[in-house]
Amino acid sequence: MTQRGSALNFRDFVENLLATGDAVDIREPVSPLLEAAAITRRVYETNSPAPLFSNLTGTEAGFRILGAPAGLSGTGGNVHGRLAAHFGLPAGTAPRELLEHLIAAMHAEPVAPRLVETGPCKENVLTGDDVDLERFPVPLLHEHDGGRYLGTYGYHVVRTPDGRWTSWSISRTMLHGRTTLVGPAMAQQHLGMIHAMWRDRGLPTPWAMVLGAPPAALAAAGMPLPAEVNEDGYVGALAGSPVEVVRTELHDLHVPANSEIVLEGWISPDETAPEGPMGEYHGYAFAESKPQPVFHVEAMTFRDDPILPICVAGLPPEENHTIWGTMISAVSLDLLRAGGLPVDLAWCSYEAATCWIVVSIDIRRLARSGMNEKELADAVAEVLFGSHTGWLVPKVLLVADDIDITDIDQVVWAMATRHHPGTGTYCYPQAPGIPMVPYLTPEEVRTGRGGKSVTSCLLPEQFEGVTKGATASFRHSFPERVRSRVEANWTAYGFAERALPPR
Ligand SMILES: Cc1cc2nc3c(=O)[nH]c(=O)nc-3n(C[C@H](O)[C@H](O)[C@H](O)COP(=O)(O)O)c2cc1C
Ligand SMILES: [Mn+2]
Fold first, then answer.
1. What ranges do the domains of the chain cover?
2. Ligand 1 mutation target, pool 170, 173, 310, most atoms within 8 A of CB
3. Looking at the keywords, is Transcription regulation present (predicted)?
């Protein structure tokens, strides 16, 4: 028996989506070369149910792909339903509740994984000459990509040479050969840090990759927890029970027992190959490939009829926004609170492609703090831009807590009406940041610094704890008795019911 439920069992996650209508089982023949990705992109862009491709052309019978595993959903009006299902939470869970859930687990005792003898991921075990990554339906995701990507919704497992720290982290991998993959292992990311420890000893890095992982584990692998924190213990705390893991075939790494697909081998200390280009999280595809480390696969194990999940990166919303952005929001909010700042919430607007994070400020606490705008901006920059999570997001927007920052319309309104273009922008040219941000100069890319800002959308009087202008809207401009009458009579007036509540 393997552990069950959406959070800790990918197969259950898929079954539950199918049962609630938030996934469709596609029996029509679909090619893994561009067609599956095109369908997945259209799903993201129309908030449609996740596509499960059950009849992939040129693929062994039974091998399947799940697209848009954490796409936004139109099903039942629960936009974040598929995201919430990653954590076993109800489909109607609001972003704020989800962040508090993620933060509570950060403060709980880690729950170490439980090693079990075997599990579904060992239903098929191939080693030596039998290893052939081409057996999987490796998809071509965008017309001009430099190759086909096997690992867009899976995570790497590596351990420090002294065994003190195990890292689970998402980073993409492109098919390179029958038994090889190639992909980034950035020095600032934990995969790159641990890879460097082995390389410095002149050794290959023992490595595994998990595809079709328990959804809560996958999300934690896309979460910028601090260095030396084991994601596996965090997942146990988050899910409320230990993740069941099995030993890999060769290197004694531990992987979730019910994973769909497990690849295992080593990362070369010195060999690189061109990787990319690929359509990316910021919404652009650049033309160049880059040299990246080569991953050698010595063993592959998989469940019967395995399901490969994919993310087709590009314009929001896809999983780089819904998963990565949400996990960054949780870590950032926790850090800002720990820094004693008067914050209400932090949220990477999905629409901003994980290139900005909005922070709402409790203006009454702000007034008590006595900080002026520059002091607040500097304090936020100091907390975020010096952190592992803040390295990832170049721009921070500050707004008052009358704004629901999970609603992009309200953020746009605050930006347009409250940000002072002359005095409200604070730049941090020395702050380190991810070099993938499209607007960086070649010099900033080379040094890994700059292009980072804090933009204040706080009105001058909000530093005194007040907002002069009252909001003119349905909610704010009418007494309760008028609003409830209008609401009660809405369909009687001849209008259809609205899916969205008015502001
Ligand atoms: C769908 C998805 C794809 C991602 N792809 C990459 C990637 O290719 N390279 C990368 O460095 N980070 C990527 N990330 C972000 C990292 O997983 C994230 O920053 C995480 O914190 C890294 O783990 P670490 O903090 O243990 O280093 C991706 C995240 C998601 C959700
Ligand atoms: Mn980590």
1. 10-310, 337-464
2. 170
3. no
